[in-house]
Specification:
single chain; 112 residues; mainly alpha; globular; disordered N terminus
Length: 112
């Protein structure tokens, strides 16, 4: 029963590439939402790593756009909330570019 409930509430992405869904998750992190809160809102399990993985995709893209190395900014990637004002500035600066690269996520809809 429990797995059915999760399956029916969580959208399954058809999109495997970088999407606007990743940017939305990163925005929620910058607003101060915890990973568990984001998991609950999006229908992921409490211990899901999707939020971390999706937000890191955005951070790595921003670092690449800024021509900054991953190793030099490892702490900012691991603890984005500690550097949220720095990330917010960079995200706002590169939002147009990120949105031009990101695709709108498609979902499998088996509920019909």
């Amino acid at each position: 029963m429990k797995t059915n409930a999760i399956f029916s509430t969580r959208p399954t992405l058809k999109t495997k590439g970088f999407s606007t869904h990743h940017i939305d998750i990163f925005n929620l992190i910058l607003l101060g939402k915890t990973n568990r809160e984001i998991n609950q809102v999006l229908g992921y399990t409490k211990r899901s790593h999707a939020v971390v993985d999706h937000s890191r995709k955005v951070m790595y893209k921003i670092l690449a756009l800024e021509e900054l190395g991953r190793k030099d900014h490892h702490d900012r990637v691991v603890y984005p909330r500690n550097y949220q004002f720095w990330w917010r500035k960079l995200l706002d600066k590169h939002m147009e570019t990120l949105l031009s690269v990101a695709i709108a996520p498609g979902f499998y809809d088996d509920r019909e």
